Amino acid sequence: MNGILYFSSTGNSLYIAQKLQQKIGGDILYIPNYKGTGSEFDKIFIVTPIYSYGMPRHVYELLPRLDKSKPLVVIQNYGGMSGGADYLMWQYCEKFSLNIKGVHVIKMPENFTVSFTVPKFYLKGVLKKSVSRVNKLTDLIAEEKYRVPKAKKTHEKTWLKNMSNWHIIGQRFSSNEKCIKCGKCISICPAHNIKFNEEGRIEFLDNCVACLGCYHRCPAKAIVYQNKNKKDRYVNPNISENDIGKDVSER
């Protein structure tokens, strides 16, 4: 059986994981909740966004414990630029002596929008094209046509520096008067970085991983960044938002 391990905050990686499951079968597992090594699978597939030309912290922490004997294929998705993240991923898989077979990259809608706004027409265009892109990519993987990235310049230092500072992003979040105290942000945070304080208000701690799930998925749009009351939010419309963060066993 295949193991499809994914990290997703707004649904892009989950959408790819679901499409991949339809083509090759296997179990879909949410990386922050997964405690295994992948030894139970015949092949391991990681579906992950690119963060700061690298990878999310949860993916970075997963790699060293994976079973080194199992074939591994990685699919990375990005909204802006990939910045050599595919080759960096390849290097880290080799560093941990993993049986890496391929690293694929695919453009998906941008969701890191706390400091800028993506034009709606552009977002819709990328989203529309992503359907065919994902289908083509999953067809290639089903045929075991894996992509080995060419050696190139990476931004490892930038990624490592930014990852060490992601907690600052959490410090810049707050909730406004629209908060309905539903607790959704607390339950979906992969880093357990949000809680209710003694006054019953949302409080952000010091362990943010910059996924922005709380920001985009708050039902009242009550979470703001640096007190800016922006209206644009993003969740991939091709998945059920309630499925983000859940496992999906092969049927």
Walk me through the structure.
This protein is an alpha/beta fold and 251 residues long. The protein is built from seven helices and nine strands; from the N terminus they run βαββαβαβααβαββαβ. The strands form three sheets. It has a five-stranded parallel beta sheet, with helices on both faces. The protein is globular, with a radius of gyration of 18 Å. The model has no long low-confidence stretch (mean pLDDT 95).
Largest sheet: 5 strands, parallel
What is the gyration radius calculated from CA atoms? 18 Å
The helix-strand sequence is EHEEHEHEHHEHEEHE
Give the CA-CA distance, first to last residue. Answer: 12 Å
Helix content: 25-40%
State the helix count: 7
- Strands of the widest sheet, in order across it, are 2-1-3-4-5
Shape: globular
Runs with pLDDT <50, length 5+?
none
Structural class: alpha/beta
Question: What is the number of E strands?
Answer: 9
Strand content: 15-25%
Average pLDDT, to the nearest integer? 95
Layout of strands and helices, then pairs:
Blueprint: E1 2-6, H1 12-24, E2 27-30, E3 43-49, H2 57-62, E4 71-78, H3 85-95, E5 99-107, H4 120-142, H5 156-171, E6 173-175, H6 184-188, E7 194-196, E8 202-204, H7 213-217, E9 223-225
Helix pairs in contact: 1-4
